[in-house]
Write a structure and sequence with these properties.
- Chain A: Residues 33-275 form the ABC transporter domain.
- The structure holds two protein chains of two kinds.
- Chain A is α/β, with parallel strands linked by helices.
- Chain A has helices at 2-11, 19-22, 71-77, 108-114, 129-139, 146-159, 163-166, 179-192, 209-222, 235-241, 259-264, 269-275, and strands at 33-42, 45-55, 60-64, 88-96, 99-100, 115-118, 197-201, 227-231, 244-249, 252-258.
- In chain A, the strands form two sheets. A six-stranded mixed β-sheet of chain A has the order 6-7-8-3-9-10, with helices on both faces.
- In chain A, β1 (33-42) and β2 form a beta hairpin.
- In chain A, α5 (129-139) packs parallel to α8 and α8 runs parallel beside α9 (209-222).
- Chain B is an all-alpha fold.
- Chain B is built from seven helices and no strands.
- Chain B starts with 10 loop residues before the first helix and ends in a 5-residue tail after the last helix.
- Classes of the chains: A alpha/beta, B mainly alpha.
């Protein structure tokens, strides 16, 4: 990593994806997460090519792009989910509140509590609704007693908009809920450990339009409390839920800007072709 | 230009857009023709031709409705983005503006029977040149739309000044004529309205041009600096004639 950091400093001024030239930095406040010159390799194959981007608290950031463009790969770098893939190799610099998340002293379990993740397919534990939420706070020692744990469970379910639907059956299995409820349960589970960032990898692609709308409303409500990054194939969804949109293509960040600009007047032809349905 | 003409993956979307482009070209062509026919009717005191312009305005009105319906449908069903969205919004607005241009031509045609007696009115001689330019602006603004040509749109916007200048000259001449020949006031007033209609046609062509510019570039057209020569004799009619918007 150290060599890459030096390289990054020397190349920053000419780097095409430098935030100064792509508008990656936010006008308001310091970014929650910063990525600089990130490259990802799966074996010999390069999946991400020199991506630099900032993620802010005050806006939901959407990653869009065709299948295989690297958006999910990049998302998974942000809480080191790619560590689980033996052939994956990452260079560059990713920081959470200034902390290098790939530094040797970084506790990955702790990192993933600070940077939570919600997946495409709802994946509740085969445990009760209560235990799904309580699991994280228990292993991270966030609650001192039953009362405090109850409180965390309730407030997490409240914030995920699920409390009124499940409060009378907290001991039922999480897997017995509907798909949309399961996904909100997973979001509540992520919230329970009080994260700073929530990464969502196509969180609605397995849900019907009503469950999708509930998740989108939830994202809207959670904005500002957490930095939210969402990968989505649904461009209408990106347009609806995000304030910033990043378009990825063949492993590079083609364009990053205000969502309204990306969808009404994209600067790059590749972005335009993709969002207008000319890609192909 | 932004629109490189690459086809959409969904071919039906292209077919909707192409159909709309064809309809915009048609409504533009019909409006331009209406102006020319109305002015020919005026020059030749051809009441039959004037009546034809009034009748044919119905076709323009119908076309506007069909364009609006199809645009509305296309936006609802295809959820267009970026330049597609801008083009459809522009189409929606252009159809309304061009329909108004047709109305002005119809209004000119309706006045033909009222100004056939007096050929001594000097301003009459300026009207054909004025209408030629106004009609060119309409044609060029719609050509600019068909070609996504922001430059041509800018040029239409600049050339509208010529139409405005014509209007100011005619206004002065008509007022002078009215003062000298009070018995012609009624007829002269109609000529003034005709000139005003042509001036409004020019303004509407610039409205079309502004939408073309937006559709093509995603940016609003830069403001036109009104090219009034400060050495021009400024007199009372500048305050009397309402400002072209």
């Amino acid at each position: 990593m150290n060599d890459d950091k030096k390289m990054q400093e020397s190349s920053e001024s000419i780097n095409m994806t430098d935030p100064a030239t792509t508008g990656a930095t936010s006008e308001s406040g310091t970014p929650k997460m910063t990525a600089r010159n990130v490259n990802v390799f799966y074996g010999d194959k390069q999946a991400i090519n020199d991506v630099s981007i900032d993620v802010n608290m005050d806006s939901v950031t959407a990653f869009i792009g065709p299948s295989g463009c690297g958006k999910s790969t990049f998302l998974r770098c942000m809480n080191r989910m790619n560590d689980t893939i033996p052939i994956a190799r990452i260079t560059g610099d990713i920081r959470l509140e200034g902390d290098d998340i790939y530094a040797p002293q970084m506790d990955v379990v702790q990192l993933r509590a600070r940077v939570g993740m919600v997946f495409q397919k709802p994946n509740p534990f085969p445990k009760s609704i209560y235990d799904n939420i309580a699991y994280g706070p228990r292993i991270h020692g966030l609650a001192t007693g039953k009362e405090e744990l109850d409180h965390i469970v309730e407030s997490s379910l409240q914030r995920a908009g699920l409390w009124s639907e499940v409060k009378d059956r907290l001991q039922d299995s999480g897997t017995a809920l509907s798909g949309g409820q399961q996904q909100r349960l997973c979001i509540a589970r992520a919230i329970a450990v009080d994260p700073e960032v929530i990464l969502m990898d196509e969180p609605c692609s397995a849900l019907d339009p009503i469950a999708t709308a509930k998740i989108e409303e939830l994202i809207h409500e959670l904005r500002g409390q957490y930095a939210i990054v969402i990968v989505t194939h649904n461009m209408q969804q990106a347009a609806r839920v995000s304030q910033k949109t990043a378009f990825f293509h063949l492993g590079t960040l083609v364009e990053y800007g205000e969502t309204t600009d990306i969808f009404t007047n994209p600067r790059e032809e590749k972005t335009r072709d993709y969002i207008t349905g000319r890609y192909g | 230009m932004v629109n490189s003409g690459t086809e959409h993956t969904v071919k039906a979307f292209d077919s909707d857009i192409n159909q709309l482009r064809g309809m915009v070209a048609e409504i533009g062509g019909r409006s331009e023709q209406a102006i020319d026919k109305a002015m020919r009717a005026l020059e030749n005191s051809d009441l039959e031709l004037a009546a034809e312009v009034v009748r044919e305005d119905k076709l323009i009105d119908d076309l506007e409705k069909r364009i609006d319906e199809l645009t509305f449908q296309t936006i609802a069903l295809r959820a267009p983005m970026a330049d597609d969205l801008r083009e459809l919004i522009a189409t929606f607005k252009i159809s309304g503006v061009v329909e108004r241009i047709g109305d002005y031509a119809k209004n000119i045609a309706k006045r033909v029977p009222l100004v056939t007696r007096n050929r001594r009115l000097t301003p009459v001689s300026l009207l054909p040149s004025m209408s030629k330019i106004a009609s060119e602006l309409v044609r060029d603004s719609l050509d600019a739309f068909a070609r996504r040509d922001a430059e041509l749109a800018m040029e239409v916007n600049r050339r509208d000044q010529i139409v405005d200048d014509f209007y100011n000259s005619i206004f002065r001449a008509v007022i002078t004529h009215m003062i000298e020949n009070p018995k012609d006031i009624g007829e002269a007033a109609h000529l003034l309205f005709i000139a005003k209609n042509l001036e409004r046609i020019g303004d509407h062509a610039t409205n079309v041009a502004e939408m073309v510019y937006f559709a093509a570039t995603g940016e609003p057209m830069p403001e036109r600096t009104r090219g009034e020569d400060p050495t021009d004799p400024v007199d009372v009619d500048d305050t009397l004639s309402d400002d072209a918007d």
